[in-house]
Amino acid sequence: MSDIIASIKEFTEAAAKKADTAYRASMLKLSAAALAKMLEIQYRELGSAVYRMCKSEDSAEKEECEEIAALTVQIDGTRKRIASLEKRIEYIMGLVRCPGCGNTVKMRNAYCSACGRRLAAEEEKTVEENENQIEDQMLKITN
Questions:
Q1: Which domains, and CATH codes, for the chain?
Q2: pLDDT tens-digit readout, 115-138
């Protein structure tokens, strides 16, 4: 009877771990989607600024160029944050990118299934370190 209870407990713990992983990945995906929407708005604003600059015939072009530069910096920052979230999602899901071909493979693989390149062993990180990094990233996104 204790073997059955132990099996049920083990199954329940595994299911809870998978549910937690799915939850964390979903939260990051939601954040990435929000950033993608922000990026879309920034692109639209950049396009409007460029259009106004092209139509302008006065000395206001200097101000327009400064606005374009500021928007470009914002866009670059948003793109970096999205890329960071995508990497975290891959990590949570147990995936890494092959440095040779960029294919997504499971972390436990020693070789890339697409190009055959040996995958470098990732530095071991504790779950707490990863969760702290994710929380820090989420705080940066929301601030």
A1: 2-142 (1.20.120)
A2: 999 987 543 443 455 556 666 666
